[in-house]
Amino acid sequence: MTTTTTTDRSPTADRSDAGSAAIEARGLGRAFADNDAVEGLDLRIGSGEIYGFLGPNGAGKSTTVRMLCTLLAPSSGSATVAGFDIASRPDLVRLHIGAALQEAALDPVQTGDELLRLQGRLYGLDRKQVDQRLRDLAELIDLGDALHRPIKTYSGGMRRRLDLAASLVHNPDVLFLDEPTTGLDPVSRASVWDEVRRLNERLGMTIFLTTQYLEEADALADRVGIINAGRLVAEGTPEELKRRVGDDLIVARVGGSLVSAREALDGVNGIHRVDEVHDELVIETANGAATIGPVAIALGHAGVDIHDLTLRTTTLDDVFLELTGNRITHHDLDDEPDTDHHEHATTTTEAAR
Ligand SMILES: Nc1ncnc2c1ncn2[C@@H]1O[C@H](COP(=O)(O)OP(=O)(O)O)[C@@H](O)[C@H]1O
Ligand SMILES: [Mg+2]
Q1: Using CA atoms, how far apart are residues 193 and 224, in angstroms rounded to an integer?
Q2: 73 lines ligand 1 (CB under 6 A)
Q3: What is the pLDDT of residues 282-308, one digit of tens each?
Q4: In the sheet where 248-254 sits, what is the strand order?
Q5: How far is the CA of 48 from the centre of ligand 2 (A)?
Q6: Could you tell me which residues come within 8 angstroms of residue 116 by beta carbon, excluding any fewer than 6 positions away?
Q7: Which of 207, 236, 265 is the C-terminal boundary of a domain?
Q8: pTM metric for this prediction
Q9: Test site for ligand 1: of 35, 71, 177, 330, most ligand atoms within 8 A of the Cβ
Q10: Residue 186's domain spans which residues?
Q11: Nearest Cα to 316, choosing from 224, 210, 207?
């Protein structure tokens, strides 16, 4: 049997000189019959980045991941992952990536330990190397004694972590996580977030993570690509994307004259504009968190009676709405967006413009 070991990471002639790009896609596309699941996708993801691929159900996230992991052939375009072409060197791509995909198939009677050892052997590690990796991962994944119990006894969160550990046995350069927290309870979700941050910070691993959760992309990703109906509609850091949509809003509901309340705000730094909407002042500012204090003080000094002072910062949901005309909603999932809050905010935004 020919052994290809993951320990040999010397550059080969097949490795492209793609600079520091861990993932590069050019015009990548995949059609299913006449359905263009993914179309004309251009990506350039640097080594060591956490890239959040954000989009609603059916947007084309899994199709993209499956192409980049060499599990699905593209119908157009090309891509390199970890420096190797997905079409001509899928074997080398697979050696350098790990993937925890949505439809993880875990054998219920196997123990976690057995699964991880099998995975290590499949990647050509010898017993000593596998032992070492399991020691590294035990610390990282923290499955404890459960590692020696059958997988069927695991909770959803534990299965997800085992699947994540399995994808890491061979110490990949690039990790693909397809909706790693969908359906998880908040505690398990937080532990996956910690894990992703740790892998990235400690090992410098490049992480391509898909999600329907705006707050997940916001919290984890260095850069976010927003995909809708098979097309990348925006890309940037969470801050850049939010800035595209506009200002934070401070809404002050006050007693008495709005005109005098408004005059009281004249000297406050950082205010771009103030509108009177019904009995509220809607204050636009680049940095709501920094401005809400001075606003409260100025109103207080002027003797204005403040009934309510609320801050609404721009979210990635606003970005998605502006780009696509829809909100990302997950009716099938556990956490409904706070509809009242959003509707109220949308009204004031529109009224303010
Ligand atoms: N194996 C397949 N056969 C036919 N259509 C598919 C297949 N996989 C995905 N699709 C279609 O491609 C589109 C994108 O799906 P997918 O990539 O799974 O989206 P996401 O992961 O963002 O929810 C959807 O319209 C879906 O129905
Ligand atoms: Mg999917």
Answers
A1: 16
A2: no
A3: 998 988 889 999 999 999 999 999 999
A4: 271-277, 280-285, 248-254, 306-312
A5: 23
A6: 130, 133, 134, 137, 147, 162, 165, 166, 169
A7: 236
A8: 0.78
A9: 35
A10: 21-236
A11: 224
